[in-house]
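Batch 3, record 17
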Amino acid sequence: MSNIPKHLKYTKTHEWVETQPDGTVKVGITDHAQDLLGDVVYVELPKPGRKTKAGEACAVVESVKAASDIYSPLAGEVVETNGALTDQPELVNKDAYGSAWMLRLKPANPAELNSLLDAEGYESFIASEAH
Amino acid sequence: MGHRTPLYNEHLAAGAKIVDFAGWDMPIHYGSQIEEHHQVRRAAGMFDVSHMTIVDLRGAETRAFLKHLIANNVDKLKPRQALYTCMLNEQGGVIDDLIVYFMQEDWFRIVVNAATRAKDLAWINQRVGAYKVSVTEQPELAMIAVQGPQARERVYEVLDAKLREQAAQLKPFYATCEGEVFIGRTGYTGEDGFELLLPGKDAVQLWRALLEKGVKPIGLGARDTLRLEAGMNLYGTDMDETITPLECGLEWTVAWEPAARNFIGRAALEKQKAQGAQRKLVGLVLNEKGVLRNHLKVIVDGVGAGAGEGEVTSGGFSPTLSKAIALARVPAATGAQCAVEIRGKLVPATVVKPPFVRNGKSLV
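Prediction for the assembled complex:
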């Protein structure tokens, strides 16, 4: 059973989104996603300042198995990326919802957050995907 | 549901993630592929490779038949010695790579790939023709590879006295057989160790005994990164029927002498050798962070327009080196440097001679 924290929002492409007090959002990949990927060996992150559209590929996670695109959950601007992942990509396997956050995004339209899945919605989505 | 080896339930009990491999339900890993990789480089791990195809060739003309069938020469072998070789078609393309064990004058055992089982057996049976040789697959045999610097010690602990004594005398690439158990000091990891072939009904007992001695189960994922670090080719990715041994780094397995030995594919290979092969297989080490993947384009400067392209045949992340490594087929004139196109970006790579790792030590 995957770990799906209640306070986060989710995408159907297995990213999680956490709203910060300053209105920016942190983005990472879910526990379910890291389990599917296997051991992560490299994370390629965008440069701060990059403008993204919702659903646009903006980072790449490479595991022992394959390279996978990470999609921006919202339109916005990348304001910070997690440099720790450059030297410790394995954090994605160990702490997907914590120290393995990938980027911080300033949403262009905060209302877009409402279109994301909640924990329950994401749980039923991955259950349906398994069939 | 695919074919299952006698150890299938042991894999489930050990938490394996099961995938389809050539029609078999096999463990890809048991949690962490990288930890399994290190386990083999640093201590001892075991692989269920019972899906591989074991074929016994028996009869008075077995030696003569093998001298025709395969590109390496069984005349090099002392009794109970093993040989790595390619089996070629008339065009010199590789039908499969295999290990042949010379057990007795009228008994040679070969182990071929699971994915090529049907075509290999068809080819061998077609080519055996008038040779007085029986070709018998041994599907009831299980095969467990125990590999790593501590592998042999762990195996001795679970063998009975007679078998242990015989196993302890095996030099690398030799095998012995006692009763229903066959032990070869061979493997596919670049580490020391044994491959044990035994009746499927006895496999679970051996597996559990090794587990008790601290030998950890290793999945096919780590098997692939271990063999890649060891610079060992994988059939179907590094070579196939359109590739000759000269184009996949395996010329060392072609026995040109004696010139009179007419093995299948010889004429085509001689012609290619005389003209010079256009492509060669090399090792690549990526200088920057990233991962090399199968089929990535390799760009080689200074070897002529249009000719300056190659391809990664086996790429991956090397846990031992903490770098991306690959086997790649490149133009024959390729020098010490090239670039690999990763997501539209050219990333510099160093060209090296495989292996990358042997017996736990980096060679690059």
